[in-house]
UniProtKB/TrEMBL annotation:
Region (Disordered) residue spans: 116-157
Alphabetical keyword list: Electron transport, Oxidoreductase, Transport
UniProt KW Oxidoreductase keyword: yes
Sample GO molecular function, one term: ferric-chelate reductase activity
Sequence ranges assigned to domain FAD-binding FR-type in this UniProt record: 34-201
A Pfam family assignment: NAD_binding_6
GO cellular component: plasma membrane
Protein's name in the database: FAD-binding FR-type domain-containing protein
Gene Ontology terms describing biological process: copper ion import; intracellular iron ion homeostasis; iron ion transport
PROSITE patterns: FAD_FR
Amino acid sequence: MHIALSIAALWTMYYHVEIFTNGEWNIFIWPCLVIWIFDRLLRLGRILAFNRNPLNTKATVSYDANSKLVRMDIDGSKNWITPKPGTYYYIHVLDDVLYALQSHPFTLAYVSSKTSASSSTPLSPIGSRPPPHRSSSSLSNESSESDALLPPSAVSHSPSNLVFLIRPYDGFTSRLKNLCLLRPKKLRVLIDGPYGHSEPLYTFPNILFIVGGTGVAVPLSHLHRLLQADSAVHSVKIIWAVREHAFLESILRDFKGVLGDERIEMEVHVTRDEEAQDEPMGRNLKSVRIMTHRPDVRAAVEDTAKDAGQARVAVVACGPALMADQARKATVEMLEKGYRGLEYFEESFKW
């Protein structure tokens, strides 16, 4: 669709200036054409780098009715570009014939071992080395959950999948949900990416993530890098507002190993599920606490700044516009009060 619109735009531009017989305005057409061709070649290079047979990339898509979440696992076994936290990919679903030319951007949540999306096998967060500090409770887990923290070569020789967490609304995401409504489904997809850049959050001693819904993909994608041996991180606090308790369970089940690290503290605010209760997550996840009220964003930023003093703090927001506005405003207020170590980062899933 984007290609067709671009060609149409260039074509109409050409006919718009063709009336000038001396061709004095054609010079403005050719730079546009060269830039467009260069952009297409770069995109083609990214597509081929992901899979040299790009029309045969496989994805498993599943829908969880309890968490109201679509999960897409894309085979990344032939990908030449190492996935990085915070990057995003354009996805074409080739099996959706009427809309196959449409591409839709999604932020990478994490990388998993190559298994079915419906299974509960543990995931490998984006990164390469295990964290240096782990709590005694996480060390006591001899199950394969701890393997998610090992270098990929140490876990297994099986290739990895790129995992995307998608909240279905209208249009493409609704069609995607309908495709896998009854059971997980295999699809052919075309992947264009990665795009964007990865913020150097690992250089900050203190990090505060304030996220809502599928915005939890942002801290999840960064966690493993933040816990590596060369990271300056001393504390990571994640405040996550989520509607359904089932969504929470599906995420925590796969990240028990990482969230057991003693440097991580997580507050989960379940805002709509009446069955949720204020409680810790049990012995293995003492750092995770469930709450039933909406998060106080201003208080979270203020408390983090005061605890850090003049040390550097990264405040990262990804969620509804109101949540991001509150986080931004609170960060500015604390800067005005003399806490100069704060830096604000904002991720957005909107165009």
